[in-house]
Amino acid sequence: MNPAWKAWAAAVALAALSQQAHALFDDEEARRRIADTNARLAEVQRKLEERIGAMEAQLRSGGLVELANQIELLKADLAKLRGQIEVLTHELGEAQKRQRDLYVDLDSRMRRIENAQAAAAQPQPQPQPQSTQAPVPGAAPTVATPPGDASAAPSTVQGALPAPAAGAPAGVLPPPGVAPRTDVAVEQRAYDAALDLFKRGDYNGAIAAFGSFVRTYPRTPLASSAQYWIGNAHFARRDYRAALTAQRTLIANYPDSPKVPDALLNIASAQSELGDAAGARRTLEDLVAKHPASEAAAKAKQRLATR
Q1: Does residue 179 have a pLDDT over 50?
Q2: Rounded to the nearest 10 degrees, how much is the dihedral formed by the CA atoms of 45, 47, 49, 55?
Q3: Alpha helices by DSSP H, 168-222
Q4: Contacts of 269 (CB under 8 A, 6+ apart)
Q5: Half-sphere exposure of 237 (CA within 13 A, CB side)
Q6: pTM, 2 dp
Q7: What is residue 9's three-state secondary structure?
Q8: Which of 76, 218, 226, 243 could join 234 via S-S bond, C-beta 3.0 to 4.6 A?
Q9: How far apart are CA 281 and CA 295, in angstroms?
Q10: Is the Cα torsion angle 51, 57, 60, 62 positive or negative in sign?
Q11: Closest to 121 in 3D by CA, of 204, 180, 185, 170
């Protein structure tokens, strides 16, 4: 065979072998890359499965379910507490009403006793002793002269009555056994009528009635009590500023009234409701300092101890 042809055949064979080797190399690289990709996908899938499994395990262990159950229990407890608060609020309101009624009744009784004592302290007209001497036929009846009054001449007028009391108008004689002050019963009826309005919860009517009472009888012993109940009625209406004004009016107009300590206590309560804690504390301290023996001062001490 011609050597040239041999060389050419060898070159052609070498080229063919080179192409086959290159093709084999490219296929191997592609397969390697595909294998790497598959491995990465498998790893990602494995991690996702692990996370999903962990979440399922957590759910199965009851973590979220337990949390949801606790929330429901808390809601139930909250509803129960709200119901208990409503019941306690109602019971507190009833207790305050009973206490107010008891206080009103006690105040009314004390005022009746005070008025009875004031009426008993008024001077009573002294009846003239009747003569025990037998009448002389044909002579005018006489009235015996009281012992110790020898200078007084006996009256010769048949059926003579005792002399008018000092300062009484001429021709007006007070009946025996009746005190000169005859408007006490009228005042008491007006006061009791206003107090009944307060007891029934008609606070506006009580304020008007007690206000009219104070204007009509400004100097009666009941006037300071009427002014106190005006302030109490305003407080019951939650008009705390009006309650402050009414109780301060009592203190200014009736500084010696036994109602002053109660008025100060009511002022402190109104100040607390208005958010003036410092003012309420000063009022309570003033009450304890000026009226230490009063029942209101004892209540003020209790309040100060809890502040």
Answers
A1: no
A2: -150
A3: 184-199, 203-216
A4: 235, 280
A5: 18
A6: 0.48
A7: helix
A8: 243
A9: 17
A10: negative
A11: 180
Which residue is listed with tokens 């008993």?
120
In DSSP notation, 19-76 reads HHHHHHHHHHHHHHHHHHHHHHHHHHHHHHHHHHHHHHHHHHHTHHHHHHHHHHHHHH
**Radius of gyration of the chain from its Cα atoms, rounded to whole angstroms:** 53
- Please name the helix (run of DSSP H) or strand (run of DSSP E) that holds residue 252, with its range, or none: helix 240-253
The domain defined by 259-307 folds into: Methane Monooxygenase Hydroxylase; Chain G, domain 1 (1.20.58)
Terminal alpha carbon distance of the chain: 128
238 Ramachandran zone, left/alpha/beta (phi>0; psi -120 to 50): left
In b/e form, how buried is each residue of 208-224, taking b as 16+ CB within 10 angstroms? ebbbebbeebeebbbbb
Taking the C-alpha atoms of residue 201 and residue 205, their distance in angstroms, rounded to an integer, is 9
Compute the distance between CA of residue 125 and CA of residue 60 in angstroms, rounded to an integer: 102
Which 8-state DSSP code applies to residue 277?
A: H
Amino acid at 289: A
Asked if 191 and 213 touch (Cβ cutoff 8 Å), the reply is yes
Angle, CA 218 vertex, CA 217 and CA 223 arms, to 5°:
85
**pLDDT value at position 218?**
92
Angle at 63 between CA 58 and CA 66, to 5 degrees: 150
Longest dimension (CA), the chain: 212
Spell out the domain ranges in the chain. 99-119+184-238, 259-307
pLDDT greater than 50 at residue 111: yes
> What does the alpha-carbon distance between residue 249 and residue 201 come to, in Å, rounded to a whole number?
23
Residue 231 CA to residue 239 CA, distance in Å, equals: 9
Tokens 């107009």 locate to: 253
